[in-house]
Design goal:
Strand content: under 5%
Largest sheet: none
Number of strands: 0
Structural class: mainly alpha
Shape: globular
Number of helices: 16
Length: 316
């Protein structure tokens, strides 16, 4: 797999400047994320230096991007905090992300449905970096979530609810008697039940949901009981699922080795990379379903997969 990783890295270096979207999931930040991992994996300063240049370009442009995870500020901020905490780049998160924080935690973002996904994940990540005024920021997010869920009768995608549940789990541990948290908890079970009953999810989201429920405190028993409504269906071992599950595991569970990962065949990985190199549209480069995503998934699972699978994937 070293050769295929090098092919991915070189392709991304060659074409990354053609990508206008600087977001994490669907843009340039996802490529930066992969290149830093690849530079460490190969101990190659060239790729690290190249990632530095792209990263500087992204940080210089954050004032003009929307506040969402996939294409905007929340995803860029989350990835930046991750890179600093894991020592891919140097810096103080509270200084580097000061402007990002001020926009992400702004009251003006209430009722933005795209904003629902990721704000809680970003806050919890920043909380571990000793974010200033954390309790007030947590209360602001609780208000955002509560007002949005109370005022909107739409069925939310399970991925959005997972992001809220992730936030609730962590805030419940810090502030278990928070009044607004308890008000929000009374809204969540019906929202989740409606989503599960209306199949507004895929099996990867359901994997995350079940994992989140398994780590909840017992005082969240109304939510825990919701696992009775669902079972995860068969998940095909496609490269796309390999990428998605790896990414969700990083976002929610810090690369937990007990999280379900569907490992594809070596042949399917080669075909995936070859097909995207032939196509070379913007989405073929990106993190969620492109070269950056499969490259990161391979690196993350080097020596981590079932040994028989690992031998097949990583020793070729």
């Amino acid at each position: 797999m070293r050769k295929i990783l090098q092919k991915i890295a070189n392709t991304l270096v060659l074409y990354s400047y053609h990508i206008d979207n600087i977001g994490f999931v669907n843009g340039k930040m996802g490529i930066v994320f992969f290149l830093y991992h690849y530079a460490r994996y190969t101990d190659n300063e060239y790729y690290n230096s190249y990632a530095d240049d792209l990263f500087d370009e992204i940080l210089a442009s954050v004032g003009s991007v929307p506040v969402n995870f996939e294409n905007g500020l929340i995803g860029i901020g989350w990835a930046t905090d991750y890179l600093i905490k894991n020592e891919f780049v140097e810096g103080n998160s509270n200084e580097v992300l000061q402007k990002v924080d001020s926009r992400v935690f702004s009251q003006s973002n209430i009722f933005n449905s795209h904003f629902i996904f990721g704000q809680g994940n970003y806050f919890i990540s920043r909380l571990n970096s000793n974010i200033p005024d954390s309790e007030n920021k947590a209360n602001d997010i609780l208000n955002h979530y509560y007002n949005y869920l109370k005022e909107n009768k739409i069925i939310l995608p399970l991925c959005h609810l997972n992001s809220i549940l992730y936030f609730i789990i962590h805030i419940n541990q810090l502030y278990p008697y928070n009044k607004k948290l308890n008000q929000l908890l009374r809204l969540i079970p019906d929202k989740v039940e409606n989503t599960l009953n209306n199949t507004s999810f895929d099996n990867n989201d359901l994997l995350v949901f079940n994992k989140l429920v398994s780590i909840m405190d017992t005082n969240l028993e109304d939510l825990i009981q919701l696992t009775n409504y669902n079972t995860v269906g068969e998940i095909v071992n496609t490269v796309e699922n390999f990428i998605t599950q790896t990414w969700l595991n990083i976002l929610y569970f810090d690369n937990d080795r007990n999280f379900t990962i569907s490992f594809p065949s070596v042949e399917s990985i080669h075909k995936f990379v070859d097909d995207r190199q032939k196509s070379l549209t913007i989405k073929d480069f990106t993190f969620m379903q492109g070269l950056a995503g499969v490259g990161l998934a391979i690196i993350k699972h080097n020596g981590y997969a079932n040994p028989s699978i690992s031998d097949k994937i990583f020793k070729k």
